[in-house]
Amino acid sequence: MTPPTVQTRVAPTPSVTYAPQGVHVYREPQPIPLTESWFYELQFPRDPRGPRIARLTLRTVLTHHGLDELTDRAEVLTSELATNAVCHTTGPASVSLTWAHPTLRVSVWDACPTLPAMLPDAALPLDAVGGRGLFLLDRLADRWGGCAIGDGPWGPGGKTLWFKLLLGNAESAAAAAA
């Protein structure tokens, strides 16, 4: 039994693709330029694996968008906020990434409306396991803040803590952290 023969014909690539009405023509998407805005959101349950998934997601997004300069700081800060969301609340959490050149904004929402208090660094024992999240946020972020959100018709309230990192500002952040 002989296999069927297939004839192929290579045509020059037209500059404009025409298709009959109702036929979808697939075109390879092009990367978004650094100057264009974008938004990603990850929702996760109260699960100890959530912060790691948030870190890996953030690193993947920033790396693929060419924002390697911001990745390490963003990963540390996102890890702190996502870990607090899992450890100190009883509900789900979400992490959102918003890029508007030259600023990356990362927001972490959780179901608890109580905003954390920033403890003075001297108040913590040197061997304390926790309690430095907001201190790190204050040292590594270019800007940061938070707000409590009341329950509404669209769902539970909770709170959002956020930080901003500016592209080209890694040197000043490193100096502040030292």
The coarse silhouette is: globular
Give the number of helices.
4
What is the helical fraction, as a range of percent? Answer: 25-40%
Highest-level CATH class: Alpha Beta
Measured by DSSP, the beta-strand proportion falls in 15-25%
Mean pLDDT over the full residue set: 82
**Structural class estimated from helices and strands:** alpha+beta
CATH superfamily: Histidine kinase-like ATPase, C-terminal domain
Helix-strand topology string = EHHEEHEEH
Q: Work out the number of β strands.
A: 5
CATH fold topology = Heat Shock Protein 90
Distance between the termini: 75 Å
Parts with pLDDT < 50 across at least 5 consecutive residues: 6-15
Quaternary: single chain
* CATH architectural type: 2-Layer Sandwich
Domains (count): 1
Biggest sheet: strand arrangement: 1-2-3-5-4
* Cα radius of gyration in angstroms: 23 Å
Key features?
178 residues, alpha+beta, Heat Shock Protein 90, 5-stranded antiparallel beta sheet, 29% helix, 22% strand
Characterize the structure shown.
The protein is α+β, with helices and mostly antiparallel strands and 178 residues long. It has helices at residues 50-64, 68-88, 133-140, 170-177, and strands spanning 38-44, 93-100, 103-110, 143-149, 158-166.
Give the SSE map.
Layout: E1 38-44, H1 50-64, H2 68-88, E2 93-100, E3 103-110, H3 133-140, E4 143-149, E5 158-166, H4 170-177
Antiparallel strand pairs: 1-2, 2-3, 3-5, 4-5
Helix pairs in contact: 1-2, 2-3
